[in-house]
Amino acid sequence: MRTMYDVQQLLKRFGAYIYVGNRLWDIELMMIELKKIYDNELIERNDYINAMMILKREHRLETDYQEGLQ
Q: SUPFAM superfamilies, alphabetically (predicted)?
């Protein structure tokens, strides 16, 4: 798993299709769903950590991008 698309595919395996319309909100909702999946022991710890790191990176990049527009 290397990209946000990979994380989306992981979430899709559990029936979580996320699209709110705002990329930042999408990422935050993905983090919440990923945590729920991990807490229910449906994915391994390494997969959870890797996916969360990808989402945190994307969140930081999107926040920086949106702040640059203002």
A: YqgQ-like (SSF158379)
Going by C-alpha positions, the residue among 13, 4, 50, 55 that lies closest to residue 32 is 55
CATH code for the domain defined by 4-69: 1.10.287.760
Q: At what angle do helices 23-39 and 4-13 cross, to 10 degrees?
A: 50
Helices 4-13, 45-69: crossing angle, 10 deg rounding = 130
In tens digits, the chain (70 residues) has pLDDT values of 999 999 999 999 999 999 999 999 999 999 999 999 999 999 999 999 999 999 999 999 999 999 998 7
Cβ(9)–Cβ(55) below 8 Å = no
pTM: 0.94
